[in-house]
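Recall that a protein's primary structure is simply its ordered list of amino acids. Everything else, from secondary elements to tertiary packing, is in principle encoded there. The following example makes that idea concrete.
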Amino acid sequence: MQLTHVARRSGRLSSFLREEMEMSAGLMNRLKWQDKLYVNGVPQHTDYPVAPGDVITVPLEEPEPQYPAQEGSLTILYEDEHILAVDKPAGMLIHPSRSQFTDTLANFVAGYYQKTGQAAAFHPVTRLDRDTFGVVLLGKNSHTHALLSQNPLEKTYEALVYGAPTQAEGVIDAPIARRPLPSLLRQVSPEGKPSLTRYRVLSRQEKTAVLALTPVTGRTHQLRVHCAYMGFPIVGDPQYGSPESQAFSKEMGAATQLLCAKTLRFSHPITKTPMEITSTYTIP
């Protein structure tokens, strides 16, 4: 893939890269030292004087991944030459780790790119816990990833919780901190970072409710911690659930938290078109 821009004004090449093409300083510097900035097909430095009508091209080459590409089931929700959105199932890691080097989302996306002949890379813009399922948005190159990371994303999750809020909708405003080491879990604490979640009740049952959850901040385990703190833990959550919710989860056979990244809204990084991507998964 490459970026192309036809100049409509005069100016230094660097100004076009920063402004019209919205390139990060880090990527610009890397490409500069690789002689990968072209004006009318000729490599140029960032101080080159560009004239109206000149064609600026920047190839976006991605290194080979350090993990194996695998063929596997991949539910694609949206794809174009810049971005890919997929539905991640519960139980799947986003990235390979020391303990698991295969069968992750990155492996399967790399296999898909290989099979379809795409010179693209795995750049997740949104990340989910292993057992959280739903929409994951990926940039196909570092430039697109940087643009998506700079712009606001509106995420809406759906969760089955044990218990329910008394109000139909509201805000959970409770700071979250890491528990003392060696624990990797989080807790609500006055010493924590500001954390804000909006919720809305979608349906109520005898012992449970389905909530729409919108994280305003993005703390680790935020939705799970906030729901548990408010007295309506997410069903199936083995780490933050109450004894009652865990007993109920066992009865209904929920081995992992019933938390779905349902909808993602954002502006397309290149076309600026408003985008809305929705998961095919539903909360039982």
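The radius of gyration is 22 Å. The CA atoms of residues 82 and 140 lie 5 Å apart.
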